[in-house]
Amino acid sequence: MNLQEYEALRLFASAGAKVPKHILVKDVEGAAEAYKAIGGTVALKAQVAVAGRGKAGGIVKVSSEAEVRAQAEKLLKSEIKGLKVESLLVEEWINAEKELYLGFTIDRSAKKAVALACGVGGIDLEDLVKSKDFTLVREHIDPLKGLMRYQAYHLAKGIGLKGGAIIRFVDLSIKLYQLFKSLDCELLESNPLALCKDDLLIALDARIIVDDNALPRHSELAQSSLDLNPLEREARKEGFSYVDLEGDIGVIGNGAGLVMATLDTVTYYGGRPACFLDVGGGASSETVEKAVRLALRNQRVKVLLVNVLGGITRCDEVALGLVNALQANRTIPIVVRLVGVNEEAGRRLLREAGIGYYESMEEAAEAAVKALRGD
Is the pLDDT of residue 223 over 80? Predict the structure, then answer.
C-alpha cells in the first residue's frame, strides 16, 4: 500500500523528522490561499506516488500567486504515468546546501531490512548511481537489535558527512528506522533529504510503502488516501488484485505467482505488460467477467492475455466469464491459455464464442506479443 506524499510527510514529522511547511489543496483557489499562507517561493507537487514524478513534470517551482494559479490549473488537469492528479501539495521551497538520499527497504536475499544512503539525491539519483559517480552505502539491520548507532554513523561517514551533520544524520536514521519497523514497511525513503545551514536535515520528499499483509495491524491507515487509480481502487473493492503497469498487454491469471510468471514470459518474448490482474483461486464466472471488463477499461491495453491453470478454479467458469465480458466488448485481440479442471467444457465455450486458446503459457505469451505487432 503506497501512501500519498502528504501522508508520508505527516508520519515523518510524527517520528521527529523535520519537513517543510506544506498544505494539501484540491483546486486552484486552494493553491492560491496556501501560497499566501506560506509565502515566498514554493513547490507545487502533484499528489501521485509514482517514481519519476519530477521528470514527468509533476513538481513545479513557482514564486508568485499568478504562477501558482497557472501551474496549479495545469497540474490539476494532467496525468502522471496514467494517474490523474486530483490534489496538490503546496510546499515551502527549501534551499539545500546539499541533497542526500536516505532509505530503508527489505533485502530478501539477506532476509533482513537494509538501510541505504547516498551523498546525492533528487531525480537523477538512479542515473548517478548506475554511472558509478556515486555509490549507495548499505547497512543490513539485525531484526532483533534494530539499526545501531554505529551503523548509522558508518552510513553518515560513507556519504561524506562531517561534524554536526553526522550527529543529526545518525539521530534521523534511528527515528526513521523505527517508523519503518512500526509501520511494517516495504520501503521508506526521503529523496531528496536536504542538508541545510547549521547542519539541519529536512526531508523534502517522503515515500512510504506498507506491506499489504500487515494492514490488519494498522487501523490508522485504513482510511488512508492511497495512490490507487480508479481501476486499482475498484479492483480492491471487488476482492481481486490489480496493479497498473506501463505496457500494452493486459495480463489476467489466477494466483499471484502465475500472473508474475506470465508477466516475465511476456517480457521474455519482447512484450510489455499493461497490468497485473489476479482473480484469485476459485474465481466464479461473475468474478472473471468483472476482471476482464476492468482490464479492458485500461486504455493502454491493446491485447488481453488470460492465463488460467485450473485447480480450485474451474475452467468452464473462467470461460463463461470471458464470453460474457466480451459479448459487448470485442475490440481488441484476446489470447487465452486454459488448462485444468473442466478444461474441455471451458474450451468448448470458447470455441463456440470464436475465442482461440493455447496449451502452454509460453505459446500464449508469444501469441499475445505477435498479436500486438500484427503478425
Answer: no
CA distance linking residue 360 with residue 196, whole number of Å? 58
**Residue type present at position 331:** T
- Residue 101 designated active-site: yes
Q: How many CB atoms neighbour CB 35 within 10 A?
A: 24
Cis status, amide bond into 333, omega within 30 of 0:
no
Mean pLDDT for 31-58 is 89
* Given the residues 6, 35, 101, 242, the one annotated as active site: 101
**Residue, of 355 and 127, whose pLDDT is higher:** 355
Residues 201 and 118 in one domain: yes
Span 228-265, pLDDT tens digits: 667 877 887 787 888 888 899 999 999 888 999 999 99
Packing angle of the helix pair 343-352, 315-326 (nearest 10 deg): 20
How far, rounded to the nearest angstrom, does the alpha carbon of residue 150 sit from its chain's CA centroid? 32
Q: Which of 189, 289, 343, 366 is catalytic?
A: 189
- Say which CATH number the domain at 363 has: 3.40.50.261
Owning domain of residue 60: 21-92
126 is catalytic: no
